[in-house]
Write a structure and sequence with these properties.
One of its GO terms (molecular function) is nucleic acid binding. InterPro entries: DEAD/DEAH_box_helicase_dom (IPR011545), Helicase_ATP-bd (IPR014001), Helicase_C-like (IPR001650), P-loop_NTPase (IPR027417). It catalyses: ATP + H2O = ADP + phosphate + H(+). Pfam families: DEAD (PF00270), Helicase_C (PF00271). This protein is 35% helix and 11% strand. It is of the alpha/beta class. Among the domains are: 247 residues, Rossmann fold, CATH 3.40.50.300; 172 residues, P-loop containing nucleotide triphosphate hydrolases (Rossmann fold). The longest helix is centred in the N-terminal third of the chain and has 26 residues. It is globular, with a radius of gyration of 25 Å. The structure holds adenosine-5'-triphosphate (ATP). Adenosine-5'-triphosphate binds next to helix 6 and helix 8.
Length: 701
């Protein structure tokens, strides 16, 4: 069991670049796919973990199956007023090359909130009509994705809340929400579903909720799960205030006793989620902590002594929004409301840092042996390997008995057959700590292609806490796993699940046949030329520097990231090139992504009438990085700045799941965005590029 758990951490912190270590686990999963069948990677013949589920309905022989509700299609995606994205509604945005009348762009009299609301609805209806028209024109191509997830077959189960006031939120929570997304913001489809289903009925017989939240990228899933979570934590705290003098008193002697956990696949996402949760809860005074730190090894390196290692690790970083904890013994007990981290970091806190060193060392030895002498004797070699030095194991620092909520963000990754061991081990530890152990046996391999899981008596798992899973993509493997082990789980989905966000446009670019890096540079400069053109046309203010778009470039391999980064730097385009093992990640904060991740709205000066003018150096791409080159490491969950209007996919994505997450780093929260997919238009590889084009086309419907 532990082997896979260790694989998980190894993929995140693998030292050198073979292909498998290219990037985050997503890609390593997908690479496995490619090895098995290169040509089949984006075809329906791909394995269940890389194939999108056709249906979210629970299947199986369980007496009671969880309900599924899909929000109706007619809901407009995003309605808000001034924050967080400079106050622009979808209808106020346009791509640079579109001609518009200046009077209409910059009305003297700003629209009232109500007018904006109806304008957004009208916009959404127009978009819907356009989509229908395109669908008719494209005929069969559109059906490519409809075969995967057809929302039209799900009847609506009744009205959904139209505002964030039903059910009523705590005043402090409501105020923080307004600060973050604007006073007139309306719930998105997935948020409306969460408001309807997730506000715990304290009188209900069934105490614990299990729910899957599935909706397209950038559709506000974080708020969808944070609101019910934070509100319930506060209610519980207030209720216990009346019954006991010290409501937050921890029941164990361990330093940290969180009441809820949020699990995320990467250190960066953990940091961002913790910061976001902190901003959302600062008025209701809940304590949010982040337990994640990239690339800090759990065991001593070859040259390090135990004491040196401890010194290295006991660094407290308070530079970000949320408090960061790095394990260090002997602190006094502190109540924590929400603890965010990767499953491995949380396991380390709970079991003691270094708890799995022996297994890790064995696995490393196995890896070395596998590289040098494939196939024979590997297990023998591994078991006889001299583990060498003395490793230390810290005392456990986190008690789990208070945990009442667990959120698994990016659940398809964290429940992926390759990585679910760490997640499930942690969940089982919580259940055991709360006095209702659940078995953690090895699961059967995912069902064979095209079939549902065929186990006669799959083991139903019922955890003694609320469990929320979220993802923008539900692969068949996750769907099967949930049907087999969580048949009563409620499934909530937005009608655009497995599609690109509505405001995200796609474009296919052909390689010229020469230097690919030069092709990419040309394309980046073209984006900036368009920005300049729009700036001049709009004549916002003659002397203001042009606000150039930022671009994320996704590659498949770590080596390619380094090469392209160096090439662009050499051409005067300052670039951040980031892979899983970059030194900048090891420092623990998200500063290596400054300028790319979305900032706290309170730190952004917002004035819709006069867009903020960047300082000259900020707008100079030779001085301030405007391009981020990375692998799938950063494709999951991160909320990038609305300045990122372009995502370039320069290596063919391994499958549509990978594509959806990469593309979804732009076009978020109703913003416009464009994804440019590079490929061959003729010769070798052009056939696959053509198929990719069709699939991408279907995802825009
Ligand atoms: N109702 C709303 N109105 C306006 N903006 C919103 C609303 N809900 C969320 N947002 C904003 O949308 C952005 C995207 O939200 P979030 O990161 O939660 O998306 P997501 O669905 O989790 O995306 P991903 O699948 O990529 O993780 C955030 O900047 C958030 O502040």
């Amino acid at each position: 069991m532990m082997l896979s758990a260790l694989q998980f951490s190894r993929v995140l912190a693998r030292p050198h670049g073979d292909t498998l270590s290219t990037c985050l686990h997503t890609s390593s999963i997908l690479l496995t796919t490619r090895r098995k069948g290169r040509k089949g990677s984006i075809k329906t013949g791909s394995p269940p973990k890389t194939r999108l589920a056709k249906s979210l309905k629970a299947t199986g022989k369980a007496k009671r199956l969880g309900k599924l509700e899909v929000a109706p299609k007619s809901r407009p995606s995003f309605i808000r007023d001034n924050v967080p994205h400079e106050g622009k509604l979808p209808h106020e945005h346009a791509f640079s090359n579109r001609r518009r009348e200046p009077e209409r762009r910059r009305p003297d009299k700003p629209l009232s909130a109500e007018e904006r609301h109806f304008a957004a609805i009208a916009h959404s209806e127009r978009a819907e009509r356009r989509t229908e028209a395109t669908r008719e024109r494209r005929g069969t191509i559109a059906n490519l994705l409809e075969q995967e997830f057809d929302t039209s077959s799900y009847p609506s189960l009744g009205a959904l809340p139209q505002s964030f006031s039903s059910p009523p939120l705590l005043p402090g929570l409501q105020q923080c929400l307004h600060e973050l997304i604007g006073g007139n913001a309306k719930p998105t489809a997935i948020q409306a579903l969460a408001l309807k289903h997730l506000f715990v009925n304290r009188d209900s017989k069934e105490r614990w909720t299990e729910c899957l939240l599935a909706s397209e990228t950038g559709s506000g899933k974080s708020i969808a799960y944070l609101l019910p979570l934070l509100q319930d934590l506060k209610h519980t705290e207030l209720a216990s205030l009346h019954s006991s003098p010290s409501p937050r008193k921890p029941t164990s002697k361990k330093p940290f006793n969180p009441r809820s956990l949020i699990l995320a696949p990467t250190h960066e996402l953990s940091r961002q989620l913790a910061g976001f949760a902190k901003r959302l809860s600062h008025m209701i005074k809940l304590r949010i902590m982040c337990a994640s730190r990239a690339n800090v090894p759990s065991t001593a390196k070859e040259k390090g002594t135990a004491s040196k290692m401890k010194k290295l690790i006991n660094v407290l970083d308070n530079s970000d929004d949320a408090e960061i904890i790095i394990p260090s013994g002997g602190r006094t007990s502190r109540p924590v409301d929400v603890m965010v981290g990767t499953p491995m970091k949380l396991l380390e806190l709970e079991r003691g840092r270094g708890w799995n060193w022996e297994q890790q060392a064995r696995e490393r030895a196995l890896l070395v042996n596998n590289d040098n002498m494939p196939e024979q004797n590997t297990s023998q070699e591994a078991s006889s390997v001299d583990l060498g030095r003395k490793f230390w194991v810290d005392d456990p620092e986190m008690g789990l008995e208070n945990v009442e909520w667990v959120v698994v963000d990016e659940a398809d990754i964290l429940f992926d057959p390759d990585f679910q061991e760490a997640t499930r081990t942690l969940l089982a530890d919580i259940a055991a700590a709360r006095g209702r152990p659940v078995p953690v046996s090895a699961l059967p391999a995912p069902a064979a292609q095209g079939s549902q899981q065929k186990s006669d008596s799959p083991q139903h798992i019922s955890y003694p806490f609320n469990l929320l899973l979220t993802s923008a993509t539900i692969p068949t493997s996750l769907s099967n796993y949930l049907s087999a082990h969580h048949p009563t789980l409620t499934r909530l989905a937005s009608p655009r699940l497995h599609h690109l966000p509505r405001n995200l446009r796609t474009e296919h670019a052909s390689w010229t046949g020469g230097n690919k890096d030069a092709d990419i540079e040309r394309r980046i400069r073209r984006v900036w030329a368009e920005d300049s053109f729009v700036h001049v046309k709009n004549a916002y203010s003659g002397s203001d520097p042009v606000k150039l778009s930022k671009v994320i470039v996704f590659c498949n391999k770590r080596r390619k990231v380094g090469e392209l980064g160096a090439f662009l730097d050499g051409r005067g385009i300052k670039t951040v090139a980031l892979t899983g093992t970059a030194d900048s990640r090891q420092r623990g904060s998200n500063h290596h992504l400054d300028g790319f991740l979305k900032r706290n709205p309170s730190a952004v000066s917002i004035s819709p009438a006069s867009p903020a003018a960047p300082a000259p150096s900020e707008s100079d791409p030779a001085v301030t990085p405007h391009v981020l080159v990375t692998t799938s490491l950063l494709s999951r969950g991160l909320d990038f700045s609305p300045d990122i209007k372009h995502v370039f996919i320069v290596d063919e994505p391994r499958n549509m799941i990978d594509f959806l997450h990469r593309a979804g780093r732009t076009g978020r929260a109703g913003e416009t965005g464009k994804v440019v997919v590079f490929g061959r238009s003729k010769g070798r590889g052009s056939g696959r590029a053509g198929e990719m084009r069709k699939r991408v086309g279907a995802m825009t419907m």
